[in-house]
Amino acid sequence: MESSRAGQNGIQQLLAAEQEAQHIVNTARTAKQARLKQAKEEAEKEIAEFRAYMEAEFKRKLEQTSGDSGANVKRLEAETNEKIEHLQTEASRVSSDVVQMLLRHVTTVKN
Predict the structure, then answer these.
(1) Euclidean distance between CA atoms 100 and 23, whole angstroms
(2) What DSSP string runs through the chain?
(3) How many CB atoms lie within 10 A of CB 102?
(4) How far apart are CA 46 and CA 41, in angstroms?
(5) Are 36 and 106 in contact (CB under 8 A)?
(6) Each residue of 44-70: b (16+ CB within 10 Å) or e?
(7) What is the spatial distance between Cα 18 and Cα 46, in angstroms, rounded to a whole number?
(8) What is the pLDDT of residues 57-104, one digit of tens each?
(9) Of 107, 111, 103, the residue nearest 32 (C-alpha)
(10) What angle do CA 12, 14, 16 make, to 5 degrees?
(11) How many alpha carbons fall within 13 Å on the CB side of residue 82?
(12) pLDDT tens-digit readout, 93-108
């Protein structure tokens, strides 16, 4: 009879340990998802700020050259489009590396 109680007690301890482990895993998953969401929001914010900055710079340069001939405006637009294409090319070139870096930092659990 005492052996049966010891067995029951051991089973209860195993069940409690299993529940605790599941709770820890669920908490870690929730924290990971929150960090991924935060990283995405921060990246979107930086992109929006950069886009606004570039548009403001473009408008400023257009205003500076508004008294000039149409050739200067076309030259400025061509330069701006070239810079935008360059930035987009560079962004697409490094975007996978940036995503991998963010995921690596976000998914690394530190105690």
Answers:
(1) 28
(2) -HHHHHHHHHHHHHHHHHHHHHHHHHHHHHHHHHHHHHHHHHHHHHHHHHHHHHHHHHHHHHHHTTTS-HHHHHHHHHHHHHHHHHHHHHHHHHHHHHHHHHHHHHH----
(3) 16
(4) 9
(5) yes
(6) eeeeeeeeeeeeeebeebeeebeeeee
(7) 42
(8) 998 887 776 665 677 778 888 999 999 999 888 888 888 888 888 888
(9) 107
(10) 70
(11) 6
(12) 888 888 888 888 888 8
Give me the amino acid identity at 84. I
Which one-letter amino acid corresponds to residue 18?
E
For residue 67, the one-letter residue type is: G
- Provide CB contacts within 8 A for 28, sequence distance 6+: 109
Contact 35, 28 (CB under 8 A): no
| Residue 46 amino acid letter | E
Residue located via tokens 């929006």: 48
Residue 20 corresponds to which tokens in the numbers above? 């605790």
